[in-house]
Amino acid sequence: MTKKLCGTNYPTSICFIVVNEFCERFSYYGMKAVLTLYFLTYLHWDKDLSTAVYHAFSSLCYFTPLLGALIADSWLGKFKTIIYLSIVYVIGHVVKSVGAIPTVGNNNMHIALSMVGLIFIAFGTGGIKPCVSAFGGDQFDEENVSERQKFFSIFYMSINAGSLLSTVITPILRGDVQCFGGDCYALAFGVPAGLMVVALVVFIVGSGMYKKNPPQGNILLEVCNCIGFAIRNRWRRAKYEPQRKHWLDWAEDKYSKRLIQEIKMVLRVLVLYIPLPMFWALFDQQGSRWTLQATRMNMAFGDSFNVQPDQMQMLNALLILVFVPIFDLIIYPLVALCRINITPLRKMATGMIFAALAFCAAALVEVNVVKTVVDPAPEGSCLLQAFNLVEGNVSVKIPGSDLFPDPIRCRQDPPEYETLPLGASSKELIIEVTLDGTTSRCNLMFEQEMAYSLILYPESKEIRCKLVKDFIMKDTEGNPLLRFLNTQAEALNLTVGDVTFHVPSGYSMSANKTVDRGEYSDVTCSPQTENCSHLDVGLLDFGASYTVILTEKLGKIVTDRMEDVKANDVHIAWQIPQYVLITAGEVMFSITGLEFSYSQAPANMKSVLQAGWLLTVAFGNVIVLIVAEGAGLEQWKEFLLFAGLLLAVFIIFSIMSCFYTYVDPDQLDKIYLEDSGKEEDDDDNMKKKSNEVQMNKRGKSTRL
Domains of the chain: which residue ranges? Predict the structure, then answer.
């Protein structure tokens, strides 16, 4: 007897299943939200490799459901499959969290642990994906159809709630909590690991209340066997026998006509699936390319609140919860009032257009974002800027170059880096510096593809030159970079927020360090003296690189700040339109696609189409992996490439949709019920004839 919740027809066991799903989705999306930045900042991979591995992992997560369904249906059953693969899931999270602890081994060890952990997580989350929702449906009796439908709505809400909370919380754990001297990835991965342990424990606690159906045999495997037999049979016998109407009809020698007809229906839908991976190729870049775009934007909302770049992904889950009722209750009915026939395939095609528009919006944002980025010097050249610390205007002349045509004013903020041709991988240049008719010469060595600051300072009535290597790449998490140039004869230690800078004496430069975005009007100085106590460096903004020059005026050390790399001046709120468009596309494409697949599949083939649907997501991530590693385009051009490819796929899909005829799978029951009745009559007649023959044989044997 199944236990029911008080006053309802809902089994008590579904409470454990819903809580399990919430915790598991929190675990998965929370880990995935910070994954790209983990590759970029912790493992120190470049953007393309980080994107490629992110999508390779996502792809594996959608290939493994086939394995999970095969194990559950053919061997262990859903309950044991969920238990065993959840244990694999937990192990993966633990290994991944250990790999994020800096004190555990070296970088190679961190990479190895991370990859092993991700593989385990992919097998865990993918393996249980087709089992949990189906196991929840198994808990209901056949007469409780409406309760089962409401359960799936609650189940879907738990998925989005887990996703929403995790994409808000885990970036905070990563960026706002400091451990091991930096961002706390160990905690950001450890909390999802703990939630997965909770998911497993909750599921096990409810084991005594579950209705556990034994393995029924894998229909997907039977479909594959039937298709394989049809192909082999046709290959062997087509030369000697008449052609059949459909190539699957060659399987009639072994399989029932009903099964063959059901497979034909499924294949017609699977053919429509062929263009669909391109939509997912765009959709899943929210966690990779769009997150990387956010790191180069202004993330401040007011003076006191900064959003994390990986938190923007929560907009998708939030907008889903808002858009689903809006589309169902308002938009679709209004379109229907206009006498427009909104078929499922038309909704899906429209969803593709919205996704393409989202990437056009992302490209437009990217064009403005890159205006603050300093492009590296090409091969055979370097970048150079000059700081004049001499009292007076200085002329700089570099042989074979007109880099500084105008005199450089004292403490002038350099406008931009200039490209200095070298014509070789490295080259020594003699630079002439002139002040008030007096010329000094400096021999300096330059290397290609580097960025330099040329510091001009006075010494013994002459002008000296100092060449300093610059770091022009914006911080991967969008924070400002800061360094100090000390003109004093004494070394200093300066503390900016929680970061300490050691600044050597005599026109020397400190190391370049990352600080939090903010206003710093009280930088402490050590040793603290009368002329060096509290310094003001002003606002250090997102993505900028600053050089603060320490000079003495009127007996006190003062600061002159130079902005080497401009701050991010495009606000992160400009990403909202692209999230709105991609989520609207998801509502029309994904939810409608699931409904279409369900309605067009025979009852025993719905799992086959579900597997096919998940594979479109997997192949979509493969597309991103290939483009990220092979295209080599500027980011805004890559966004437009994806938008153009999806529009081309939209045209192909629309043409294919025109030739698709909607079917009612329930008609098969009527057709084959009548056929089965005729077959039963034929079987009865055959049995009568067989009995008569047997009686005759017995009579003959008796007489003998």
Answer: 12-217, 273-373+569-688, 375-473, 479-567
